[in-house]
Amino acid sequence: MNTEHGVVVLQRSDIEKSFDDNEHALLSKLAAGAVILIDKPKGWTSFDVVNKIKKTFRIKKVGHAGTLDPMATGLLIICTGKKTKEINSFVGLDKRYTGSIKLGESTPSYDTETEVIERKPFDHVTESMIRDAAASVTGSIEQVPPMYSAIKKNGKPLYKLARKGIEVSRETRPVTIHEFDITTIDVPYVSFRIRCSKGTYIRTIAHDMGVKLNTGGHLTSLQRTGVGMFSVDDAVTIDHLNELKDRLKRKHV
Fold first, then answer.
1. DSSP one-letter code for 152
2. What does the pLDDT read at residue 2?
3. Structural domains of the chain sorted by starting position, each given as residue range(s) with its CATH number in brackets
4. pTM (2 d.p.)
5. Which positions are annotated as active-site residues?
């Protein structure tokens, strides 16, 4: 296990090698307090991953440092034991993403989790317009959170109101888009790479891009590739967790 900077980190290389007689030490370290890098699969909620870690390692104190939407994949930082007290220090780190936007169509959730409710022409959209729109939302900006979010209004999560067809006003939030690179343009699809501050809704960026281009826009794919110094390349997959669970079970039968 990587112990750089005094942080016990469980990553992919730890799962792929044989532990031999070190399983007990591994479990002890994870229970005491560690950081687990998880490559969250599509369709899983962040809490699904937390529960998976609890059951796999039989650890009571487990939390995640920054939610990923079910449709998104990529790096989810899990903290166990005493490290759960430091979750906020990981939440505050910059995030890196890759993804794609489809122009011409809008959805209530700003992604593919809800049905398309509006279609607009996109024939007028040019490559230079797309790059200009990306540049206009780069830097320090004020962002309106989507209705389909866990932010609370008068004690109620916005997404519960949204599911009832209720829309309420939301206050803007300051976020920073450090880098917003358009990597591929194949209208109506636009692929991108973003590095941003905590609290940034990439779904909102997709929606706002559509508005700026006088058409619709919603997020069709998203992968979190990094958080601070951590990379999804080092993350443990759910298959890795299942493999480790089987190995631990066989050893202690």
1. E
2. 58
3. 4-92+230-251 (3.30.70), 95-227 (3.30.2350.10)
4. 0.91
5. 69
